[in-house]
Every structure is written in C-alpha cells, then in structure tokens.
Design a protein that fits this description.
Elements lengths: L1 E7 L2 E8 L2 E6 L6 E2 L10 E6 L2 E6 L7 E2 L2 E2 L2 E3 L4 E5 L2 E7 L3 H8 L8 H4 L3 E6 L6 E3 L4 E5 L5 E6 L5 E7 L2 E7 L5 E4 L2 E6 L8
Parallel strand pairs: 3-4
Antiparallel strand pairs: 1-2, 1-11, 3-5, 5-6, 6-9, 7-8, 7-10, 10-11, 12-13, 12-19, 14-15, 15-16, 16-17, 18-19
Length: 201
C-alpha cells in the first residue's frame, strides 16, 4: 500500500491512499489532488502509480517540483520521499517487499552512468539481485519490512555514511560505514563501497 500525506504549515491536512492510477496535481479544479495556493501551477505535476512503482513528473510548472531538497523532472518515488510543491509538502510512504525496494534502487553495473559510478555504493553480493549496484544518491535510504527489522543508510553532514538498524521504527544501533563493510538485510548481503575520487585531467 502507498500513501501521500499532504502537509501545509507543519500540519497534515489530508492523507490519500494511492490506487493503481494516474493523479493530476495542481491548483486547477480539474486536478485529482488539488493544492489551492498561488505558488502551485494549474497543472503542476503528474503522479503515476502502477503496481509497486510510483513516478512523479513535473509538467513544466513555474516553481518546479523538489524531492528531498532537489529539483526533479521525473522521479521514481521510494518510501519516505518528501515532495515539495509550492508551499505544500507531500510525504510518500509505501509498504512494499524488500525485493521490490532493491529492484527499484539497484542498477546493473553496465548501466551505471559515469556520475553514478563515482558515488558511494551498496553492492548486492548475495541474493536475487547479486552483482547489482545501489548508488547512494540520496541522503537517506531505508530498506526492510515495517513488520520486522529495517536498516537505513544516512549520508551525514561530515560526509560519512551511517548504518542504522531499526526495530519497530526505532533506532537500535548505529555504525559508521567503512570501505568493504558487509551487512545483511533479509536474504541479501550488501557491501559498502566508498565514493571514487574524480579523475583529474
């Protein structure tokens, strides 16, 4: 199940359960998700929710779409992504399987873009996605089942990466990751690889 929680002025004003559908987001009366505020375009963005995947696309809005602090044109949403449209904050949450989470986040090494290859990475070294890479493009990635143990990888302000173990959503342990560290989540084994230094010309 996936859900959008709409916040305005630090208050939740609406929660929307997402079915398999397309949602038009904007200020206009024709929109499925109306955000009646002048910093929001009439047709600001489109949300496409199909099976376990959910994409958000900017429809050429005046003030843009921001996800986790970054301007985005089209973006595959994952659990706990924060969307900013005008003065509204929309929190996307989902309860999907660990395998689906890894499918959404991971890339075959041959498909890595140059800029992604230089980022810190998680490498899947055991499990059905073995050999695939998760570039750590986000400041926070959370993996696991809400009904069991979860982990999150946080990119701290000092540049280090922290591995948090969560139980029932509460932080249990925290470890600073170093090159080659291996840890397990569900049936999968992951290895942390530090960012590569850009080659100088």
């Amino acid at each position: 199940m996936a859900q959008l929680s709409i916040h305005l002025n630090n208050q939740i004003i609406k929660k929307i359960k997402l079915d398999d559908s397309v949602y038009l987001i904007g200020r206009g009366n024709e929109c499925d998700i109306q955000l009646p505020e002048r910093t929001v375009s009439s047709q600001h963005a489109r949300l496409i929710h199909s099976n376990d995947d959910c994409f958000l696309e900017d429809l050429g809005s005046t003030n843009g779409v921001y996800i986790n602090g970054y301007a985005c044109q089209k973006h595959l949403l994952i659990n706990n992504d924060m969307i900013v449209i005008g003065k509204y904050e929309l929190l996307y949450t989902s309860t999907i399987s660990l395998l689906t989470q890894l499918r959404q986040l991971s890339i075959h090494p041959n498909a890595l873009k140059h800029q992604d290859a230089e980022l810190a990475q998680l490498e899947i070294i055991q499990g059905r996605k073995q050999g695939h890479i998760i570039p750590l493009q986000r400041d926070l990635i959370q993996l696991g089942d809400h009904e069991s143990e979860q982990i999150s990888i946080e990119h701290a302000l000092d540049g280090t990466y922290l591995l948090h173990t969560l139980v029932n959503g509460q932080n249990k342990t925290t470890k600073t990751l170093a090159q080659g560290d291996i840890f397990k989540i569900g049936e999968f084994m992951l290895r942390f690889n530090e960012a590569r230094e850009s080659a100088t010309v």
